[in-house]
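Structure in, sequence out. Go:
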């Protein structure tokens, strides 16, 4: 069998890129973040000067594996020049704040590890590779590389185990049930908490804009910049809503009472799974009003009724995600460095730093 690796500029070879990606998408285990719906919107929003390539592995002139690789040059430890490759990311914070989760390469799972190794071996100009927030590669290993893995949980609810929405509340802990009931009672004084789903792309955009206002108000109050601080984030998601709402992949949710909005959720829908991505809530002085908890609770009940299979909170170890979930996946950021004198020195320096400045958990 003959092997060939091809590198395409996605901005000057758009037709070829779409053809290969959509072909291999049919053979791979693809998340929403690696679907052509997400990828095509991402490419359309990125500047065409972005250092990004589509890497394609060919076996006997047939494409068997592909992924995007963003390249960033920098200096590590104020000593080493380094050229990093980022899988399905650009390597630049302004654009990568989108946070691609369940990230992977497009390839049949039976040959995935082998094809990843082949690609990395042939990309000799890259010192280090980063596969961010990924699944399926936790066991990747090769004697030619130093591999470091950082793991995080992604909590989710198995909706199929609840025949009726009411059975979900019974599944939760006594404390969580009490919080939900108390909060719902508080909102009853305003006519009760209700739920509304956007029915059109225009309505979804309006809800998204209101979500932004609530989100930014709360995060700025906490001394943080918030998810919408960089213009690209909003530009991308408004484009995504426009492109994918009619395909049934976008869910904007409003939770409200007679007198006010409680909160908004921005979710994706893919393969019968609801993926919670972003939110904005109206917080009150009363601790009994829990807008985030009630927004998720009512949305989960609606998703059970709609017969979705999963409600995924995506990556993060936040307590509320764990307390509302039934299951969890492990998502890994995998850092793959070529074995060299430089990489061993970096490993030594990192170990010294960890020893004297351990991370706080």
């Amino acid at each position: 069998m003959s092997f060939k690796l091809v590198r395409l500029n996605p901005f000057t070879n758009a037709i070829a890129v779409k053809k290969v990606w959509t072909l291999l998408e049919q053979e791979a285990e693809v998340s929403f973040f690696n679907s052509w719906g997400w990828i095509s919107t991402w490419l359309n929003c990125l500047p065409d000067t972005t250092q990004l390539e589509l890497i394609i592995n060919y076996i006997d002139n047939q494409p068997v594996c592909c992924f995007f690789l963003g390249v960033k040059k920098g200096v590590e430890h104020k000593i080493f020049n380094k050229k990093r490759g980022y899988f399905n990311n650009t390597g630049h914070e302004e654009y990568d704040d989108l946070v691609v989760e369940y990230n992977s390469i497009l390839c049949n799972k039976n040959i995935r590890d082998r094809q990843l190794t082949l690609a990395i071996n042939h990309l000799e100009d890259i010192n280090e590779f980063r596969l961010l927030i990924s699944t399926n590669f936790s066991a990747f290993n090769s004697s030619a590389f130093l591999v470091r893995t950082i793991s995080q949980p992604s909590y989710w609810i198995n909706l199929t185990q609840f025949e009726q929405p009411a059975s979900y509340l019974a599944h939760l802990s006594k404390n969580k049930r009490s919080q939900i009931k108390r909060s719902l009672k508080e909102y009853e004084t305003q006519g009760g908490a209700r739920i509304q789903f956007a029915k059109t792309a225009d309505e979804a955009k309006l809800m998204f804009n209101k979500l932004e206002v609530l989100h930014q108000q709360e995060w700025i109050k906490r001394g943080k910049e918030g998810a919408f601080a960089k213009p690209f984030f909003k530009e991308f998601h408004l484009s995504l809503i426009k492109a994918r709402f009619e395909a049934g992949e976008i869910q904007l949710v409003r939770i409200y009472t007679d007198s006010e909005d409680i909160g908004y959720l921005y979710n994706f829908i893919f393969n019968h799974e609801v993926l919670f991505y972003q939110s904005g809530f109206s917080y009150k002085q009363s601790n009994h009003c829990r807008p985030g908890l009630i927004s998720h609770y009512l949305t989960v009940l609606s998703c059970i009724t709609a017969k979705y299979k999963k409600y995924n909170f995506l990556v993060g170890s936040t307590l509320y995600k764990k307390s509302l979930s039934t299951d969890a996946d492990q998502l890994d950021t995998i850092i793959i460095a070529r074995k060299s004198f430089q990489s061993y020195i970096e490993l030594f320096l990192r170990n010294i730093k960890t020893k004297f400045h351990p991370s706080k958990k």
